[in-house]
C-alpha cells in the first residue's frame, strides 16, 4: 500500500519499507527501501577513483580530471538499480534529491560550481525533469557550490544502452555545447554530475565542451558506475 506522498513499500523488493515497520527511524531512505535492502545498499564499498580514471583513459580523450568519484556500483538486480530506475523513469524526483544530499560528502572541497549533465529538451519534456539536475541541486544545498547550467545538448542522442564503447564515443561526439552561463565557470573548479556512469563517454563529452570555457579544474561525480567499470 502506498501513501499519498511517499511509497511505503520497498522500491526494490516491494516488502514494507523501513519507515512502515518503524515510523520513528531516522534513516533518510526509510520511505523507499526496506531494512534488508538498506543494509545491502550501505554495505556497498565506494568505487576506487583510479578505476574511474582508467575507464576515462580508454576513451582516448586527453582531459585532465582533478577528481573522478562515484558513490555506488550499479549492479543489475540490486537495490541501487531499483532506486535509480525509480527516480529516472517513475518520477520520484524527491528520491533523486535525497540521494544527492547523501553523496554530497564526495564533493571535492575546492569545487565552487556544479554542472549537471543536461538532457535534450525533447527528453526533458517527456520526463518532466532532469535527474542529474535534481542530484546536483541537492549536492549544492549541502555545500558552498552553485549549480550553473553551463552546457546543453546540441542534438538528441540515441540511447547508450547496450552500445559498445566505439559506438558510445561516436554517439556522444559533439553532443554538448556551451550555454551563455558558461562564462560563469571561467577560472572555477567545476564538478560535472550524472546519475550513472557506464563507460564515461557522456561525462567526457560534457567535459570536452566545458574546456572551452576555461575552468580552473574539472572533476566528475556519478551516483553510480556500471558494474563492469567498477571491476
Features:
alpha/beta; 10 helices; 231 residues; 17% strand; two-stranded antiparallel sheet; Rossmann fold; 5-stranded parallel β-sheet; 7 strands; globular
Give a description of the structure.
There is one protein chain. The protein has about 230 residues and is α/β, with parallel strands linked by helices. The strands form 2 sheets. The chain has a 5-stranded parallel sheet with strand order 1-7-6-2-3, with helices on both faces. It has a two-stranded antiparallel sheet with strand order 4-5. The chain is globular and about 50 Å long. The chain starts with 17 loop residues before the first helix and ends with a helix. The longest helix has 11 residues, at about 80-90. It has 2 domains: about 1-45, no CATH class; about 45-230, Rossmann fold (3-Layer(aba) Sandwich). It is built from 10 helices and 7 strands. Helix 9 links the parallel strand 6 and strand 7 (about 215-225).
Topology:
Layout: H1 18-21, H2 35-42, H3 49-57, E1 67-74, H4 79-89, H5 93-102, E2 113-116, H6 121-127, H7 131-141, E3 146-147, E4 151-153, H8 165-172, E5 176-178, E6 189-197, H9 201-210, E7 217-226, H10 227-230
Parallel strand pairs: 1-7, 2-3, 2-6, 6-7
Antiparallel strand pairs: 4-5
Helix pairs in contact: 4-5, 5-7
Summary, kept brief:
This protein is an alpha/beta fold.
